[in-house]
Request: fold
Amino acid sequence: MENCIFCKIIGGVIPSERLYEDDKMIIIKDIAPKAETHLLMIPKKHYSDITGLDVTTASELGECLLKLQEISRKLGFSDGFRLIINKGEKAGQTVFHLHIHILAGDNLTGF
Ligand code: AMP
Ligand code: ZN
Reply:
C-alpha cells in the first residue's frame, strides 16, 4: 500500500528493529515505547484496522496470535504482557495498517 509507513517497514524501505518475522507478520520495536517492552505485531497484509478483516484474514490473525506463546518465551516476556489494538483516531490509532501493541515489563499501569 502506497504511503503506508508499516508497509514500507515490512518492505524494508523504512528501517526498524525487527525481532521476529514469518510469512504472515513481523514483530518490531515501537519507536516511541510506552512500556519497558513495547513491540508491534504487524500482519504483512494491509488492513486499515481490525474491522477490515474477513473470516480468512481473521483466521490468519489468529495464527499470528497463537505464535505469541513461543515468541514471548524467546523474547523474554512470557511471564506477563498486554495486547492493545487501537481502532480509529478516537481510540488513538495513528497508523492505519492493522497492528497489535505488545506491552510488557515491570511498570505496566492499569487501564
Ligand atoms: P497506533 O497509535 O495504535 O496507531 O500505534 C502506532 C504506533 O506505531 C505508535 O506506538 C508509534 O510509536 C509507532 N510507530 C510509528 N512509526 C514507527 C516506526 N517508524 N517504527 C516503529 N514504530 C513506529
Ligand atoms: Zn500498510
